[in-house]
Fold these 2 entries.
Entry 1:
Amino acid sequence: MKTKKLSKIEFKHQRVLIVWAAIICLYGFIFYYVPLVGWLMAFQNYKPVLGVFKSEFIGLDKFKFLFEDESFIRVIRNTFAMGIINLVCTFVMAILFAILLNEIKTKGSKKVVQTISYLPHFLSWIIVTGILHDALSGSGIINELLMNFHIISKPIDFFAHEGYFWPIVAFANVWKETGWNAIIYLAAITSIDPSLYEAAAIDGAGRWAKIKHVTLPGIKPTIMILLLMNVGNILNAGFEIQYLLGNGLVQKVSQTIDIYVLKWGISQADYSLGTAAGIFKSVVSIGLILVFNNIAKRHGEERLF
Amino acid sequence: MEQKRRRKKISGADLAFRICNGIFMIAFVIVTLYPVLNTLAISFNEGTDALRGGIYLWPRVFTLKNYTTVLQKDNLITGAYITVLRTIIGTLLALVTNAILAFIVSRKNFIFAKSVSLFWVITMYVNGGLIPTFLLYKSLGLTNSFAVYVIPGMISAFNMLVIRTYMRGIPDSLEESAQLDGAGYTTIFLKIISPLCKPVYATVALFVAVFQWNSWFDAMLYNRMSTQYTTLQYELMKLLSSVSNQSSSAEAMKNSEGSITPTSIRAAATIVTMLPIVCIYPFLQKYFVTGLTLGGVKE
Amino acid sequence: MKKKLVSALLITGMLSSMFAGCGKSAGGGGAVNADGIKEFTAFFAVPGNEINNDNEIQGLIAEKTGCKVKESWLTGQSAEEAVGTFIAGGEYPDFIDGGNSSVQLYEAGALIPIDEYYDDYPNIRNYFTDQEWDMLRQSDGHIYWIPQFSKINGEERVCQHNDEAFWIQTRVLEWAGYPEVHTMDQYFDLIESYNEANPTMEDGTANIPYTILCDDWRYFCLENAPQFLDGYPNDGSVIVDPETLTVIDYNTTPTAKKYFEKLNEEYKKGIVDQESFTQTYDEYIAKLSTGRVLGMIDQWWDFYNTAGDAIKSAGLDKQGCEYVPLPITIEEGMTNQWHNSGGAFNASSGLAITTSCPDVEGALQFVNDLLAQDVHDLRFWGVEGVDYEVGDDGLYYRTPEMRTNCADSSYKAAHLCFYSYFPQFNGTSQDGKNAMKPENQENEFYDGLSDNLKKCFDAYGVKTYVEMLGTSPAPGPWYPMYSYSQTLTTSTPGGVAWNKIGEVKHEYLPKVVMAENFEAGWEDYMKVYNECKPEDFLSEMQTELERRVEMAAKYQ
């Protein structure tokens, strides 16, 4: 590997880059790093009255509270599980959809399909979960279909069984976001040099071969970058959707870290607990990013930094 | 290119693929279109009647009441004006700054490329919390101002990385030959790289514009008392909250003809917000659906 | 391209600087506007109805009082978050009601001590008795907020039972010849036998005999009945024994077990809706709206304005699908306390004036003026001849058209101005005839009822919902205990226990009702329940109870 050295000529040459980078990073420092002073709250018994600098320090009490609580360990598990399932499902579906859409050669229908596909993104979760809840209820369309095809003999109460909850959440995510997430991949596909397809065609490649040897490698950097970013977001598996779809019977599998924080932190005016959970999430996220970025580096793939 | 393909005999496998793909797309369209049509139907249905459920694709008791209620909301015009403004200004600012940053860190020989990237990647996963952020904005004089909509979220690591990835895909040879011609980075950015990045710029512009268009939390948090900076979505949220609240206020002997409910108002508000985006979308869409008609990389 | 970009940037820059330029802090603070009207700002940490800027009655009140208030409400945030941000920023609206976070505002020194001023404002001073004012004193001995809702002027006037009850459709009562129903067993027997005789509605839709709403915080429809069944009022989190002045945990009483056993039995029989525990609030309201549900426990405000309306507008009132409350206890012959007289005096929050308000006297004068009878009538009844008429007997009434208008949300936003989180009166007007608020005016109330409801009320010899249940005297001075349990946080063992109990009940109460073997299910539940250390919670409640009783004892 070539070692970089800041020679005088190079410095002069790169000066404009360095100046702009410095200005932009100063902006980043102010708007993203300065507020992190608030992390002090996790080690305090924070009272809005006293503020971040005067509240009483209590050390690691809040972290102890979290990690000694059985239910917090459980919500970590739920969050990880749903985060991973959602990541895999939404990711695969978005790429698949983008590629298949790209294979439609009629421009008109391609545009129409694409426009329709992203519309659910604009519906709020409360609307989407409402429709999903109806569809899966005892007299809903899913149960009716299953009964008509004699797959089941009496309606399944999907929301009363813990086993169905994670798949339902994954489905809802796929349903709402596939078309929207595909936009990035569609943009990436446009950057593929058409001569590559022509060359592949001359080599006698069929559809699948072209997808496999041209399209996928062409969007691989985009896939890698998004994958890395989303791996860091696994712990942000959501709040609203689980909150809206969950109920007492499935709460053992439905509660995520964000719901836990709302119940124990915000709604009880315990800012410190919420901050402690937030720090935990940040640390795990950055740890995951570092690990996966390294793996990507070792395999010579596109990486975050 | 297309003609060439058409002249060729369509193989059996190809035909099977097309049919399967067609079926998949039709199924996909039906499944994704349904919730939208359902929302549309509910938005045209009388509120109390809709409470009974069972509305699918067509309103049962037709009314325009939900829309008139939404459109008569006080401050809606101000909100719409500010929202349009923040969408335009916010998108422009974000696009320019993210593109500049992405350009800088995508230069392969830039000495700080890695550290600057890391600096920004971390911002995606840390968050100081509501109150410290509020205090910061207040001390910067951003509260009770329009600037709070467009300045704080301007550069985001996500958008920057998306642009960066795209820029990295552009062959180095272009930059090198321009440099040999004596072009500086500014020229390379404006004349060589940016024209090739239209699809990704369009993508990021869409992301930012939609984010700006849908934002309301910042309006509530930082401009609660400055109604001149209210946004469309905040006004709609307040309306929704008002309507929801009526069901918990004791009101005697309500005569309910043509009354509205949170569900019906939410549906109408959703359609009202969605419509402008659906209308503007085709203009952006050509950049990422039409495929590569931009003249390739040989400019 | 470059030119375009540059000009775009220029425009952007100009626009942003323009907007930053006029970013001065927004109005309020008793500033006098062009018409000579003082303008105040207010924030209430609850969701509320926003009114238009040019609201008509707000204008009329401004003419009378010289003041108007721009109100804003909680949207998409918790009260604690909103108040926390205000405190951190150190800037407040002129008026504020911080809800559960009121104490934080006091501790932050954000509020004006009202007792240093109130002697000059008779309507405020006389709003409460000395004893009531003293209950509002904070640790420094001053009074900072005025609870707005509990004041009753003159004779109490209530027609609706706004609270919790076992509800039943009038068609069930009519079919059975309007029997007296006093116990839970009688209630379920009645529903069962009706459903056996009439399994469907007129259009053939199957009835749902009994459903339980169990969605998130609304699970009170399942969980808190044991306190009422034992004849206690709605203290919320515990029962208070008025003899011994001790708190009792209503989750573990023999009555609780009987109640859940009954539900379990009815669940197995198919009388309790099988979807009870997974239905959302919207689905529950949809079921009620179709008129299929014969009975349930709920709070009136939780279903009436949605499902009640839908039933009427679909004409289902003619089939007897409207609900009336029944005075049910666990055994015959007990007094029930589903309905208590007297407002619940909630000392934990109220309207306050902040240190950011530069014109405290003006603000207090406005509150004082809002309590004058003519302004109060404007707030709650509206404009005479437009929103109500005065009969020859001096009684106010509304025409059907007026009723429609006053229920219309656009009309309300443009015309009506309740100032609903400012102090107000219930009970009887100064004229001794009319009710302070239209919903409590008996003639208005009875006129608005459907024929089936009138028939039902006549059969029981009553005129209002409240009379269906009977009214118990106001509970002791500690009431309501929930105003304390609401404020518990994880910083005390009691708060932790309280939160855990909630979690456990959310999960296990449905399981108990659905259990194949009730005894085993109940045992499981009790085991997990006791692991939450309910004793920690109870002892903190006991301490608070004693504090409240002691406070009250000073005046006896």
Entry 2:
Amino acid sequence: MSTFIKVNEIKPYTKNINCVFIVLDKGLPTKKKEGTIFQVLVADSSAAINMTLWDVIGEQVQPGDILRLKGGYSNIYIDLLNLYVGKTGLIEKIGEFTFPFVEAPNLSATLWNVHPDPNNPKNMVATPKIKSNPMKPNPMIQHPPQQPK
Amino acid sequence: MMNQQPSQQPTTVPQIPLQSSQQQLPIQQSSPIQQSSNPTQSNPQPSIQQQQHLVSQKLKLFHKREVDEPDPLELVWRDCYEKIEQLLINSTENDINNSLVEKTSDASDVKTHTEITIGLLYAILISVPQSNLGAQYFKSLTFVSKDSLLTFCNLLKKMIGDKFQKLNDNPRQQVLWIINELINNNHPESESVSSITLRHIYGGNLLQKNLSLGFSMLNIFISHKAWLYNKPNFIPIVLYHYLRLIQDHINKPPPFNPSHLKEETMFCLDLLKNRFQECIVIGRDLIRLLQYLSNKTPEFEQLWKDLNSKPTSFSSSYQDISQSMRIPTPKHFLQSRLSPEMEIQVLYILKEVKFGNQKRYQQWFVTKYLMTPESESLIPDIIRYICCVYHPPNHVLCSDIVPRWAIIGWLLKHCKSDAWRNYSKLSLFLDWLYYEQKHDSIMNIEPAILLMAGSVKKYADMTIDLVEYIIGTLLETYDPQRKELIKTGIGNSFSTLLEKNVVQSLNHVFPPDFIGTALYERIKQNFHSLLTPSNQQNKPLNSSTGGINKPSPLSSSSGGFPTNNTHHQQQVKSPLLQPNSLQNSSGSIPNNKNLPQQPPQQPNLPNNSSQPFVNKPSNQPILQKSPP
């Protein structure tokens, strides 16, 4: 039985995310070696977050679409929280327009520090950066490989 | 009887998930596939995506792209179909009928009867139009059905209402075929199924698919003229649809076929000439459409002349078109020109969205329906709908939900062409022209006055434009023959709005400082008696309370505009909701003329809505960085 969460419950490195949200905005496509990616801003009544979509799904998704994500995950990419569908996840359009949303807080506006988990160095953990001391994004930050579907 | 409200249509099959509940109950999706546990790497089962793909291949009813979920309604219908699929494919017609009759022999077993009805409906919809199978299944259906196809029609109507636009081409054609069959059989539901389908012919849309739907339906009616002539309630509905659609088809280049326009015109003229009594129940919007067309085609020009010069030739009791102008158009006509989906979206904004948060919804609405120049012809329809069909209850009027006037203001601003903008203004003021308190709803004229009042401070051009339209057009050139009647109607509108405290006084709506003294003088000439004495002496506004933009203490404490007009709907005499009565120590019904000058009210504009009407794409940066 899958449990659905609200967008504001998404934390860094959350796995198996089930969530319903509406697409507020869509960025221009970016060509990558593995395919084309689209960045979208999605939101529900609790918060907004940036999300990465690949190829045909990214092409078809439009602002105003209500999407249902199953088995997605979150990650920190260049200091920012981002939502992914992943290889085993599923994203589907289930409607459009009639969905309440807020634009703030935008979870992808907070900067995060990423470091190995002291208890289990194989895992990465993230802690929020102090806002008054913004650091430059660290280009060395590891990012789990993304595969197109 | 016809049921024009899709939300109220009876749903006989409770197990079918309603589309509207999807968004609120995402967890309760009924698809068996979707409830599967999330696969792990070691799991030999097919992945969610693979399962999904297998299901999708079988679905034929609705258009489905990669991103779309398998339609929940189709999953249920497909299940019912699969239970009888083998029977339908492998048996003779006789065997099919015998077997289905046997299955449904238990009269108390409604479920099986419904399932078999769904299965046959699905089978008809997915069969190829050229084959004989659809007809054969329909025959079986009439054989098996125990309620003279009532369940069948209800299922069909629900599907058409919610999902017609999603149908693949083949099922779409089959729907038309079923309508034809229902009419052939003079089925009691043939009108209601036709009505709900007519709503899917979009106004302001010249795409081939839309044009051909309109023409197919017209052909059905033309070829069943005797049936139509026997449906007095349906005649004005069809007429209203096609008079409206003709607007879109005049002087249109290919792919529009000019012979179609001719047929539509002949069809409408025939109804108007031969079934006039049925047609005039449409009321004032019939005149609005006919007047528009009278300037566009010679046929309607002639009709308009006849209607004006010899009205009794249409009906002995018909003396003048002002008779029609006095009849408020029944809501279902105005509702019918919005597709069900469009209606849901407009209502969502007006019921759920907070004032100041509407911009994205407006943008999405524009992207979907109002992107092309020809789509502007939809705007008068939407304005008529907002004024006359949706009347917000008091709790919405009291809340911070987007008011109707703000959406109308945005729609007017969206009109790029002068012609459609003027016609939109006529739509906004149509109920003013012959307004009578005892026949007309104040809620029909409320948006226009609040739009003028709500715009005057920050967007005086909107208020000025509307006032000029009243004075320069409606009172002068719109209908010179009936000038006095219109002046009385508009005067009645203003005085009712004042009497019910929708606005405190006309001085607040038309402050000379904002609309200019010249225009103010023209208002004074026409509606002298409605202006408060203090203003006629040109007493400076707000002299007692300071800045003009400062909300009055009353309006801010009571929530400003939305609260202020809460009472007029039912004339609730709550002193708390009537600012004027608070000041009226005598306790009598407040009379604006005797009240001391009050500062104009500041509409309850949220701080961040610097331009509530202008639809501007949000320029908030959202994508700071691009992940891999």
